[in-house]
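explain this.
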Amino acid sequence: MSATDRDTLRSEAVSEDADAMQAIRARAAIFDLLSGLFRHAPDAAALSALRTGALADALADIGLTQDALFGGFDEKDLADEVAVEFARLFLLPGVLVSPHESVQLAGGSGILRGPETADVRDFYERTGFRLADALRMEPDHFSIELEFLGHLAREQAFALETGEAACARDAARYQREFLGRHLGRWAPRFLDRVSAHPDARLYRSLAALAKAFLAEADNDDSKREG
């Protein structure tokens, strides 16, 4: 092999690594954005993020237009209307869809703070992920599990960037394990229930986006593992 050929191969490898890092960072960004949207009622800034950038592109990829997202809302009162929707979906006793693994996991305990909650906390601790002390949410809340996957994706991208191949492999493996043992087992059922809730409007689209994105992430990880 000539020196020119070797240089070409090295250049192609560097380009592939750069593309991989970009894709992983994009995945982390969407995990973070979805985490915020399912943690609190979105403010004007969060709603604006649905119109442009990574989330808007991801919504378009699954065929959801801006009209599908915001049609029927009074633009002036959009944030207030979505806040009411969020409360009815996730906060109002008697009608809420609990966003917790321990409640939603098929064949699980079905109770808040069940053994599944402890299992998730143990997984976090094993990988060095710490919840904020001021955070008043259970570790198996949907938004926290999304945040965790975003954290792992950022760790993976950073390790690739700094040439720490073993750390990158560990971060990728933890993502596969967590999807297989936790989030991937209960999120589709939870998101289907959100979509079917009679008060779901904006969150019907967001649930569809989250479900499609998690399925894609799981498929991508399975391909890399293979």
Summary: The chain has a mean pLDDT of 87. The chain has ten helices and no strands. The two ends are 29 Å apart (CA to CA).
